[in-house]
Amino acid sequence: MKRTAKSIQADIAKGAFRPHTALSTMALAYYQQDTTTLAKNMFPVCPVGLSSDNYYVFDKEDLLRDNWQRKPAYGKVDPAVISEHTETYACGVDQMIMGIDNIRQTDLNRRQGPRTADPRQQRTKVMAAQANIHQDSDFSKSFMKKGAWANEGQGQDSTTISGNQFIKFSNGNSDPIAFFDAKKTAMRQATGRTPNRLGLGINVFNALKIHPAIIERVKFGGTTANPANVTENVLAQLFGIDKIVIDQTVQNKAGLGQDADMQFIGDPNAFLLAYATDTPSIEEPSAGYIFTWDMLENGILLPVLNYQGEAGTHSEFVEGLMAYDMKKTADDLAFFGYDAV
Fold it and tell me: Which of 103, 142, 147, 149 is the most core-located residue (most Cβ within 10 A)?
């Protein structure tokens, strides 16, 4: 019996025939979770109305000084001085464009079966995922490296250390809990703020999970059915840190057409201990901010637009835009450690 378009459509409606097409419920897409991104989990996002402007900095030396004085009889004390100055930010605009071949898409749309995903939605998701990769790359290049912060230290294999050196966490003779307690105390003394964020390179996290001093603290809390596991939450409690972020975003650092070169974006053997606010604040300092500008004046920080290609190309394009300045705003509110394992 010869099949006709009408009979095929009838069989499709009955579920008796399924044409050869792509699955609509499954695809191999290597998207990374937003929760694994380092930049936005370490620094708060601060939406701004102008691409560049000033922000106030009140000097901690004056804010933390005791300016109260005993009032003299029949007189008054000198006015207290709280110094201030301004710093600037400047958001640069980044762009990403992806194309859609409408001729190829016509063939896909006419298949009488499960519809493939809307190519515009798929490209929008790709752009959002790569925006995280792009920002994490900027964060690592700017803040997860030697010389980025005034306070930094290098891990040593030897137990003989000096200055800001520390024993590598892969060495069983080190004491990570005492180490972070000491760094937290030092920052509290210098700034009046106790660090609340800890970004860990993946190798540092893996070493801490099996460190004897940490295993000793948690092993008696496990059972056969529920063995003790060292997680980010466990480490956060042991170190007295509000949020621990594992720096595990990966990036293909090879160019188009080259063999894949998959690497962690950040230094897997480094960590960053910092104090940062959850949201922008005029009453709290923060080690850094991600100043983000809505360049299209619509309140959207990552706008995605769709437009037709030139006549004769039978194509359309999806465009993504973002404008930000990832800036260190308080150099004394962070400690960077490298060669930690």
Answer: 149
- What Rg, from alpha-carbon coordinates, does the chain have? 27
pLDDT tens-digit profile of 257-272?
A: 999 999 999 999 999 9
Q: Count Cβ atoms below 10 Å from residue 144 Cβ, excluding itself.
A: 24
Instruction: Give yes or no for a contact between 194 and 188, defined as CB atoms under 8 angstroms apart.
Output: yes
Helix, strand, coil in percent for the chain, rounding step 5 = 30, 25, 45
Question: What SS3 class is residue 198?
Answer: strand
Cβ atoms of 203 and 269 within 8 Å: the answer is: yes
| pLDDT tens readout for residues 231-243 | 999 999 999 999 9
Q: For residue 156, how many C-alpha atoms fall within 13 Å in the half-sphere facing its CB?
A: 11
Through-space distance between the first and last CA atoms of the chain, rounded to whole angstroms = 71
Residue 83 has pLDDT above 70, yes or no: yes
Distance, in Å, from the CA atom of 100 to the CA atom of 37, rounded to the nearest integer, reads: 28
Q: Is the pTM of this model over 0.85?
A: no
